[in-house]
C-alpha cells in the first residue's frame, strides 16, 4: 500500500477503507468469474439437493445484497425498498437449511443401549431374607 499513490479527490483518512473496498471488489469479481466459468447445470449435478439449496440461497442473497448496495449508491434508502423484505425472506430459508443440516449432524440415540445403561445404573435393594439365610449358613460351619 505504501507504493500506491493517494488521490487528492477524497480525504486521506478514508484511503485505507477505500483500498480495502477495492480489494474486496476484486475478490468478488474473481469469485464471479470462477462461478461463471462452470455452467449452473454442471455445478448442480454434482451436488445433493441440500447443497443445491445452499448454492441457490447464497446466490440469491448475494445478488440482493449487491442490489442493496447499488440502491444505496444511487441515493435510495434500501430499508424502504422491497429488497429488504426479499433479503429477510431468503434469510428465513437459510435458517431452515441450517436447522436441517444441524439435525443431520446431531447424534442418534440408541434407545436399547440407553435403557440397559439406566437399568444397570439403578440401585436395587437386596431382599432381607436372602442375606440372613446366607449369614446363618456361614456361622454353622
Automatic annotation (TrEMBL):
Q: Which GO terms describe its biological process?
A: maturation of 5.8S rRNA
The GO terms this record gives for MF are:
DNA binding; nuclear receptor binding; RNA binding; transcription corepressor activity
Question: Where is the segment annotated Disordered?
Answer: 120-141
| Pfam families, sorted | Sas10_Utp3 (PF04000)
Which domain of life, per UniProt? Eukaryota
For this protein, the record's InterPro entries field holds: Exosome-assoc_fac/DNA_repair, Sas10/Utp3/C1D
Which keywords accompany this UniProt record? Cytoplasm, DNA-binding, Nucleus, RNA-binding, rRNA processing
Function, as annotated = Plays a role in the recruitment of the exosome to pre-rRNA to mediate the 3'-5' end processing of the 5.8S rRNA.
Query: Hey, which family's this protein in?
Result: Belongs to the C1D family.
What is its quaternary makeup?
Answer: Monomer and homodimer.
> Can you say what this protein is called?
Nuclear nucleic acid-binding protein C1D
Provide the gene name from the record. Answer: C1D
Amino acid at each position: 500500500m505504501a507504493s500506491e499513490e493517494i488521490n487528492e479527490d477524497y480525504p486521506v483518512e478514508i484511503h485505507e477503507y477505500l483500498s480495502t473496498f477495492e480489494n474486496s471488489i476484486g475478490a468478488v469479481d474473481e469469485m464471479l468469474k470462477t462461478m461463471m466459468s462452470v455452467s449452473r447445470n454442471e455445478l448442480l449435478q454434482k451436488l445433493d439437493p441440500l447443497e443445491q439449496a445452499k448454492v441457490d440461497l447464497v446466490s440469491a442473497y448475494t445478488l440482493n445484497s449487491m442490489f442493496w448496495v447499488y440502491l444505496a449508491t444511487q441515493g435510495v434508502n434500501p430499508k424502504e425498498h422491497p429488497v429488504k423484505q426479499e433479503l429477510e425472506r431468503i434469510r428465513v430459508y437459510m435458517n431452515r437449511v441450517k436447522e436441517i443440516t444441524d439435525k443431520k449432524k446431531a447424534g442418534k440415540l440408541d434407545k436399547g443401549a440407553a435403557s440397559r445403561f439406566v437399568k444397570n445404573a439403578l440401585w436395587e435393594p437386596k431382599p432381607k431374607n436372602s442375606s440372613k439365610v446366607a449369614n446363618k449358613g456361614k456361622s454353622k460351619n
